[in-house]
Amino acid sequence: MAATFTVLYFASAHTYTGKSEDAVPGPMAVSKLFPYLEEKYPGFRKKVLSSCALSVNLEYVDLTEDADKEIQNGDEVGIIPPVSSG
Amino acid sequence: MEKFSLGSENLDLRIRIAELEKELADYRSGAAKNSNANGHATHVLDGEDDDDDDDEQNGLNPQDQDDKAVKLDLDEFRRYGRQMIMTEVGLDGQLQLKRSKVLLIGAGGLGCPAAAYLAGAGIGTIGIVDHDLVEPSNLHRQIMHTVEKVGQPKVKSIISSLKRINPNPKYIAHNYALTPENSIETLEKYDLVLDCTDSPQTRYMISDACVLLGKPLVSASALRSDGQLVVLNNPPGEGPCYRCVFPKPPPPESVLSCGEGGVLGPVVGAMGVLMSTEALKVLLSRADKKKRRKPAHLSPDIRPADAKDTPKREESPEQKKFYMTIYSAFSDTPFRTIRMFGKRKTCQACSPVATITKESMKNGSLDYVAFCGGKGSGKYPPLTKDEVINVEEYNKLRENKEGGLLVDVRDDVQFGMCALENSINVPITTILTLPIAPDKDGIDGGERTPVPIPSWLPRDTSTPIYFICRLGNDSRIAVQRLKKSGLVKGNVIKDIKGGLWEWSRKVDKTFPLY
């Protein structure tokens, strides 16, 4: 297995990064993910990530409660910004 | 020739009469049989319906809520038969739908398809909140509104369309904007709420009201090619609310409406249709299922003779699970379903430490606009008089060949749709990446590496720079941002007020409005 996990960008996260996904070297603690992505995409955290929900392998993950949870290589992480239009 | 056509018309009519007579006979014999068998059939037609749209503000009687004596007439058996024969519906399910009162907030891209299917399914009472008028730009996705309804209130337009699908439900028009002050009063008469709105503040407000009133909430949204769907506060008091899922609102400058960000009709349509399915699921789960029989092969009474006895397992009540569905239309795997944890322990609205109350909503002390960062205020920088020019003045300059450098800051897709002659395209996203000049009194007076000047900027100080965009918002940001960059010195930098929209209205009517 590749030494990476996949990060999927939905909605405004997709718009901001211009990508639908990234391969990120793992394993990585949940709390380290947003700082990592901020470095890759400056301004991402304030403009998008701050309000996003996060999922690991289709399970909702809470940034504070699950901060120490380790994202394993091969996992699929979803960055889910709130969509409010309709 | 004329005789021939009269003759064939006569024949058609005779056939139709025969059909109708047969139908009537079937009705009569069927009615007799039904009323003997189970007493459900009745010839009484709902006398409730007035065809006058303006009469629908009359509200609901609280007694309706407990009307267990709801029955189906023969027309309804015919109309709903295709769904009633499903195990998930049945007669009890259909009666439950008829007893139900559903409120849709928003008669737009989500509300139109959701309402169409709920009306079709035979929900007893359907309320719709919206304060907007139908516009031509709605028609590509808001499928209950049609060309001749442009300019009408959306609630009036949608109800007249719904009546053409199904005249049976009672339709209630709430032709006003939902506010914290009126939300409790509006929602409390209904059993289930659908959030078909388009802004973060209304989403938090509706969720809070549903929590306070103990109403399940079907919430969906769509922008561009993305959609989200989640059933909240279901069952009431157990499921998570909108604040549990998204405790922090998105920063206001990142919030785009469908008008700003765009939306594909079928994407928002799909989300609306899915909302109606979830709504039916919630309502049907309340139907009296005791009468249901299991399919024969699962029934303990009918088993193959040689079947071994297995120890009886107590059926434990299923742990309720909560999910959010995400739709990304252009992805290879367009649908994903995320399993949610339940309620957030620290939720302001639905946890034991909640601070939001009915009173704080009713008296307006909850400021949802401020909570969401006050969209509108602070999003666009104020400019001075010298930084703004109106479209007529700019047109005069152009006619005198003094138009300077005209920079269109829309994205390349929109620029490709239509653009003013001699304008150049530098999207706002590019302008936002310009460097920011250090303060004059910088701490270090040392040498700085000079920042390369982008090729599109004039090298002389005499060429004025005018920014334009679709509506005149991004162009304001561009003016301020270019000034902050310190890359141009001495040039006039102005925003063309109201953008291409104003240009089309005041200067050149042949320029497309979109």
From TrEMBL, chain A:
HAMAP family: MOCS2A. It is found in: Cytoplasm. The modification 1-thioglycine is found at residue 86. This is Molybdopterin synthase sulfur carrier subunit. Pfam families: ThiS. One of its GO terms (molecular function) is molybdopterin synthase activity. GO terms for cellular component: molybdopterin adenylyltransferase complex; molybdopterin synthase complex. It comes from Arthrobotrys musiformis. InterPro entries: Beta-grasp_dom_sf, MOCS2A, MOCS2A_euk, Mopterin_synth/thiamin_S_b, ThiS/MoaD-like. The keyword Coiled coil does not apply.
From TrEMBL, chain B:
Binds 1 zinc ion per subunit. Residues 303-318 have a biased composition (Basic and acidic residues). Its cofactor is Zn(2+). It is found in: Cytoplasm, Cytosol. One of its GO terms (cellular component) is cytosol. It comes from the Eukaryota. Pathway: tRNA modification; 5-methoxycarbonylmethyl-2-thiouridine-tRNA biosynthesis; Cofactor biosynthesis; molybdopterin biosynthesis. The keyword Glycoprotein does not apply. The active site is at residues 258, 469. Gene3D superfamilies: NAD(P)-binding Rossmann-like Domain (3.40.50.720), Rhodanese-like domain (3.40.250.10). ATP binds at residues 109, 130, 137-141, 154, 198-199. Zn(2+) binds at residues 241, 244, 347, 350. It is an enzyme of class 2 (transferase). One of its GO terms (molecular function) is thiosulfate-cyanide sulfurtransferase activity. Keywords: ATP-binding, Cytoplasm, Metal-binding, Molybdenum cofactor biosynthesis, Multifunctional enzyme, Nucleotide-binding, Nucleotidyltransferase, Transferase, tRNA processing, Ubl conjugation pathway, Zinc. Residues 400-512 form the Rhodanese domain. Residues 47-57 have a biased composition (Acidic residues). Residues 30-68, 291-318 are annotated as: Disordered. SMART domains: RHOD (SM00450). GO terms for biological process: Mo-molybdopterin cofactor biosynthetic process; protein urmylation; tRNA wobble position uridine thiolation. It catalyses: [molybdopterin-synthase sulfur-carrier protein]-C-terminal Gly-Gly + ATP + H(+) = [molybdopterin-synthase sulfur-carrier protein]-C-terminal Gly-Gly-AMP + diphosphate; [molybdopterin-synthase sulfur-carrier protein]-C-terminal Gly-Gly-AMP + S-sulfanyl-L-cysteinyl-[cysteine desulfurase] + AH2 = [molybdopterin-synthase sulfur-carrier protein]-C-terminal-Gly-aminoethanethioate + L-cysteinyl-[cysteine desulfurase] + A + AMP + 2 H(+). Its EC number is 2.7.7.80, 2.8.1.11. Plays a central role in 2-thiolation of mcm(5)S(2)U at tRNA wobble positions of cytosolic tRNA(Lys), tRNA(Glu) and tRNA(Gln). Also essential during biosynthesis of the molybdenum cofactor. Acts by mediating the C-terminal thiocarboxylation of sulfur carriers urm1 and MOCS2A. Its N-terminus first activates urm1 and MOCS2A as acyl-adenylates (-COAMP), then the persulfide sulfur on the catalytic cysteine is transferred to urm1 and MOCS2A to form thiocarboxylation (-COSH) of their C-terminus. This is Adenylyltransferase and sulfurtransferase uba4.
